[in-house]
Design goal:
The chain has helices at about 30-35, 55-70, 85-100, 105-115, 120-130, 135-140, 145-155, 160-165, 170-180, 190-200, 235-255, 305-315, 330-350, 355-365, 385-390, 395-410, 430-435, 440-455, 460-470, 480-485, 490-500, 505-510, 515-525, 555-565; strands at about 1-5, 10-15, 40-45, 50-55, 75-80, 220, 230, 260, 275, 285-290, 295-305. It is of the alpha/beta class. It folds into 4 domains: about 1-145, Conserved hypothetical protein from pyrococcus furiosus pfu- 392566-001, ParB domain (Alpha-Beta Complex); about 145-200, no CATH class; about 200-325, no CATH class; about 330-475, no CATH class. A 5-stranded mixed sheet has the order 1-5-3-4-2, sandwiched between helices. Helix 16 packs across helix 18 (about 440-455). The radius of gyration is 31 Å and the shape is globular. The relative contact order is 0.07.
């Protein structure tokens, strides 16, 4: 079985529901659900329309009634039964676990915090009490609350919905809201209004600026009824703020911090998922920016998962794994890069039959996944990548050579030059006889083509040949829409902006969205914007490939590192 959150409209009652008699409305559960949400998971199983409820009918009906009354209900925690699961046994286990769970939110927070301090993680705590990981995280978030707000909630002066929104706010924002709350004449946003107040298009006070206001050339709006002034132009503010953030990030890196991660603007930093770790011990820095311009630098932290791994390692345990890192490029981007680079390398190989002959001999000795012999299938992950490969100049050149090779061999147009095991009924003796009528140069040409067509994509040999043949990707590829669509890593994108548009443009847009920064790259390439380099190609298209971050995870580069030692020049 597994536990996950499921939207209300994807659930329906089952004829097998455990509750057959008595009140099924769940009316008595509404106050608790309105205040604390659904604590105990429903028991469901998949059907053709979503999920049907085996147990949890009253919780389900109470939630539907609350939605009718205008309440917002989150996706419900559900345990999904698998074939062979015993519903009665699962129900008994849920009931036993829930009996041990403190019913007050504050008490739950305290209990969960103690377990976190003992080295337990969110997943383990959720399993112990039979609740969802989301509920555990919600309770731990209470620890971020400003104490006066927490005390007021205990006195039932603040409603649960407002408290949940406040757990996502920075301490400064919480204090600002508390000041309004204590002012009898001030408007105090609560509920949905509080959400808009916290996360809408917020005013940016000058107190949140990291830069020198005396040098700022933009307009500042004076607040005659408050203690703070505001920036009139948010975009101009973020350009200035981004430059300072970029400088601070570079300073951290120069100081020797293992990693400096910049979160998306408005992304909430889950502090309870991290533990303190000094810089000398491999601690990292996290930078988070709120919509109102406040920037926080969290120094010396590592994730709970990494902390436990290090503890096991120090205890002498063989963990059998290393720290997981997010690769710089996605699998689809790697596929895109591999296929374009493969095309370019095999076209250049067509011009160097001496290399092809020796490569063929190496295949005979060492073998490869493709030595059947069969052609490289050039399997693309998406239709967009497939279309990009088909439209490339390298593919057109290779297709033209294939037509001439078929003519030499007497093969009909449209037929494959290489067919696995010649299983189409084509006679090996007939092909051999045809080769006997050709000159050495024609045979060598065919040999070269066959080697190029059976050259495996996504392997280290592509990197070795690319360097050996001095492949210039300018002649075979230009950045196209699939490339930009697959480009996701903001740090890498920002580094490309720096290459094309310069450091000032990159620093000024370090907090901008990936989409906005890719627009700058487009403008540079189409001539709208002045560029620092001509005929730009991303580092991914160099031989050997180079990356834009130190995170690793690019298969092509890992393969190159393994074979580079074999090259002598």
């Amino acid at each position: 079985m597994e536990i996950q959150h499921i939207e209300l409209n994807n659930l329906k009652l089952s004829a097998l529901n455990v509750r057959k008699h008595g009140d099924k409305s769940g009316e008595d559960l509404k106050p608790s659900i309105r205040s604390k949400g659904v604590l105990q998971s429903l028991l469901v199983r998949k059907n053709c329309e979503g999920y049907e409820i085996i147990s949890g009918q009253r919780r389900f009906n109470a939630c539907k009634a609350l939605v009718t009354e205008g309440e917002e209900i989150d996706a419900l925690p559900c345990i999904i039964m698998e074939a062979g699961d015993d519903a009665a046994a699962i129900e008994a286990s849920l009931a036993e676990n829930m009996e041990r769970l403190p019913m007050d939110e504050i008490d739950q927070y305290k209990a969960f915090t103690v377990l976190i301090e003992q080295g337990r993680d969110v997943q383990e705590i959720a399993a112990e009490f039979g609740v969802t990981e989301r509920l555990v995280q919600q309770r731990l978030a209470i620890g971020n609350l400003y104490n006066p707000i927490l005390n007021a909630y205990r006195r039932e002066e603040i409603n649960p919905q407002s408290l949940r929104y406040l757990t996502l706010a920075t301490t400064a924002k919480q204090k600002a809201w508390w000041k309004l709350f204590k002012d009898d004449e001030a408007y105090v946003p609560t509920g949905h209004q509080l959400k808009a107040w916290l996360f809408g298009r917020a005013e940016i006070p000058t107190s949140n600026a990291l830069f020198d206001l005396a040098a700022y050339d933009g307009q500042i709006v004076s607040n005659l009824f408050g203690d703070d002034d505001y920036f009139a132009n948010a975009d101009q503010f973020w350009t200035w703020q981004s430059k300072i953030i970029a400088e601070r990030k570079e300073a951290y890196q120069a100081e020797g911090w293992q990693a400096v991660d910049l979160l998306e603007i408005g992304e909430h930093f889950m502090s309870w998922d991290y533990v303190h770790c000094d810089r000398k011990d491999g601690g990292e820095v996290f930078i988070d920016c709120s919509h109102d311009g406040e920037v926080q630098f969290h120094e010396g932290l590592i994730s709970q998962k990494e902390h436990r791994r290090r503890q096991k390692q120090q205890a002498g345990e063989n963990t059998g794994s290393t720290k997981a890192v997010r690769p710089e490029v996605t699998q689809s981007m790697q596929n895109y890069l591999e296929l374009h680079r493969h095309n370019a390398v095999r076209v250049e190989l067509l011009k160097q039959p001496n290399f092809a002959l020796r490569l063929m001999v190496a295949h005979v000795i060492a073998g490869s996944d493709l030595w059947s012999i069969k052609p490289e299938p050039q399997k693309a992950n998406t239709a967009a990548i497939d279309q990009s490969i088909a439209n490339s100049s390298a593919q057109e050149t290779f297709n033209a050579e294939a037509m001439e090779i078929r003519a030499l061999l007497g093969i009909n147009d449209g037929e494959a030059v290489i067919e696995q095991g010649w299983q189409s009924g084509r006679s090996l003796a007939a092909i051999f006889a045809q080769l006997l009528t050709l000159s050495d140069s024609d045979v060598t040409r065919i040999l070269t083509f066959v080697m190029a067509e059976s050259l495996q994509s996504g392997t280290g040999i592509i990197e070795q040949l690319g360097q050996l043949l001095a492949v210039d990707m300018h002649q075979h590829w230009q950045p196209d829409e699939p490339f930009f669509d697959l480009l996701r890593d903001k740090q890498a994108i920002n580094a490309m902006v720096k290459e094309l548009a310069g450091k000032q443009a990159a620093d000024g847009n370090v907090t901008a969205t990936a989409k906005a920064q890719k627009t700058i790259l487009h403008d540079c390439l189409n001539g709208t914007r002045k560029v620092k380099v001509k005929d730009w190609q991303p580092r991914y298209m160099q031989f050997p490939m180079q990356s834009y971050t130190e995170r690793g995870g690019i298969t092509i580069m890992e393969q190159w590192a393994g074979i580079a030692k074999h090259l002598t020049g």
